[in-house]
Amino acid sequence: MTGYLEVLTDPSYAGQAVVMTYPLIGNYGITPDMESGRPWPDGYIVRELSRMPSNFREEGTIQDFLTKYDIPGIAGIDTRALTKILREKGTMNGMITTNNNYNIEEIIPRLKAYTTGNVVDKVTCSEKRVLKGNGKRVALLDLGAKNNIAQSLNKRGCEVTIYPAHTTAEEILATNPDGIMLSNGPGDPKECKEIIAEIKKLYDSDTPIFAICLGHQLMALATGADTHKMKYGHRGGNHPVKDLETGRVYISSQNHGYVVDTDTLDPVIAKPAFVNVNDGTNEGLSYVGKNIFTVQFHPEACPGPQDSAYLFDRFISMM
């Protein structure tokens, strides 16, 4: 099984415990194939953990990797049975512990009251950095960006300047970027009130904007729409989404627990562009009279399908 390392290092998992349904995890250890510089989940749950990985690029084990960053994990769990519970009952809070003396009646209220809060501040970069290129200049607002977003733009020739999440719109626009990218990220979008206010200012500019995942939700909130938490989110690399303009269906990689309420969209401002074939939820928006489009799924999927990677080319063509 491959791809577990990219999942571990995806900042969108900050504040969550991740359950892996494949029965054996860690067979090729830790390699340089990361989406950020460290693991982000608050807990890691597997059926069986490989303690003797075999790969010529291997640099350590998952256990060592999690231990280094004080992330608790548990093995020997029937993860598929656990997944069935989550599928039927919905996403829920939980706890991994080695203490057998907890009073369950005291713990349950604390678990129910737990929230992740604003985890974007935890995962965003601390300072601006630049990926050099000879083409269009793109400002990437790092809300918990996966490495492959910047790389997908950079390999198309773009010079990408990555900004911390709380960078003001004025600072970004002062550099006259050709385009602005709003990245993926973790948590409840409504926790990002200050960022939403700055995104509204970016919307009011004439700069082309492309937003992914959390960025998609924040743009919707900035323009007056609403979001809500799903019973259980979309996770994995095989979600079909339909382009409402062309009727074509693409297989997408997804990782989100919140969704935009299309009933709250102002049709003068935005219209649905993509829809999830499985449950009919919104997967993308197109903004009326603006060079702005946003998607809930991951066109930069790594690992995952590359069906929608063309969206980066669409973004560049708008600049």
Automatic annotation (TrEMBL):
Top EC category: ligase
Domain Carbamoyl-phosphate synthase small subunit N-terminal span(s) in chain numbering: 1-97
Keywords: Amino-acid biosynthesis, Arginine biosynthesis, ATP-binding, Glutamine amidotransferase, Ligase, Nucleotide-binding, Pyrimidine biosynthesis
Pathway: Pyrimidine metabolism; UMP biosynthesis via de novo pathway; (S)-dihydroorotate from bicarbonate: step 1/3; Amino-acid biosynthesis; L-arginine biosynthesis; carbamoyl phosphate from bicarbonate: step 1/1
Renumbered residue ranges of the record's region CPSase: 1-136
E.C. no: 6.3.5.5
NCBIfam families for the chain: CPSaseIIsmall (TIGR01368), PRK12838.1 (NF009475)
HAMAP family: CPSase_S_chain
Family: Belongs to the CarA family.
Free-text function comment from the UniProt entry: Small subunit of the glutamine-dependent carbamoyl phosphate synthetase (CPSase). CPSase catalyzes the formation of carbamoyl phosphate from the ammonia moiety of glutamine, carbonate, and phosphate donated by ATP, constituting the first step of 2 biosynthetic pathways, one leading to arginine and/or urea and the other to pyrimidine nucleotides. The small subunit (glutamine amidotransferase) binds and cleaves glutamine to supply the large subunit with the substrate ammonia.
Name this protein carries in UniProt: Carbamoyl phosphate synthase small chain
Source organism per UniProt: Roseburia intestinalis XB6B4
Encoding gene, per UniProt annotation: carA
